[in-house]
Write a structure and sequence with these properties.
Blueprint: H1 2-10, H2 15-29, H3 35-45, H4 47-72, H5 84-91, H6 94-106, H7 112-120, H8 126-153, H9 156-183
Helix pairs in contact: 1-2, 1-3, 2-4, 3-4, 3-8, 4-7, 4-8, 5-6, 5-7, 6-8
């Protein structure tokens, strides 16, 4: 986060554009959590402006990802595409696709990149994707921004405990995932 904050601070009048570029890159890459750019935006621009900038950046990133994925990854069949919700979204269009994308955006444990890629590989139109994403990202981003603000205000001891807890959860998750693959 410090790298992003310093990049924003050193960008002067272009800091907003730099923030948007970071958000788009994070979205296109699809595996880096957006919490880092949200934290940087809030620490550099303040809560309200940082939240608005993060929201605009996340929407822009999702739309650019959708467009790039649609253009470049039509033949790609990632493993997560076998999930029943993902299969439903891939076959949906119109009003049904709007509600599916909206509901998936509201679920915090579904990676944004997976939703972007799945929607891009579906029959969903750009406008439906944009509207559902714009509405669905707002509650998740509000929770993320509030959480980031609390962590930024926390003492170093609490931050260390949070980092250790996240690392522990990640290790346990990957350990269990590898065990499951070995059994298959």
């Amino acid at each position: 986060m410090d790298f992003i904050s310093e990049a924003l601070l050193s960008s002067g009048p272009f800091s907003i554009a730099v923030s948007l570029v970071f958000n788009i890159l994070i979205s296109v890459l699809g595996f880096i959590p957006s919490v880092f750019i949200t934290a940087a935006n809030i620490s550099v621009f303040g809560f309200e402006k940082g939240l608005i900038l993060s929201y605009i950046g996340e929407i822009a990133g999702a739309v650019v990802s959708f467009w790039l994925y649609r253009k470049g990854f039509q033949k790609l069949k990632p493993k997560f595409m076998k999930n029943r919700w993902v299969k439903k979204l891939q076959k949906s269009q119109g009003f049904h696709a709007f509600w599916m994308i909206l509901m998936l955006r509201l679920l915090p444990f579904i990676p944004s990149g997976a939703i972007n890629l799945t929607a891009a590989l579906s029959k969903t139109g750009m406008m439906i994707f944009f509207l559902a994403t714009s509405i669905g990202k707002l509650p998740a981003l509000l929770v993320e921004a509030y959480s980031v603000t609390q962590v930024l205000k926390a003492s170093d001891d609490i931050r260390i405990v949070l980092i250790l807890l996240i690392l522990l959860i990640s290790v346990v998750y990957h350990f269990n995932r590898n065990k499951k693959k070995e059994r298959e």
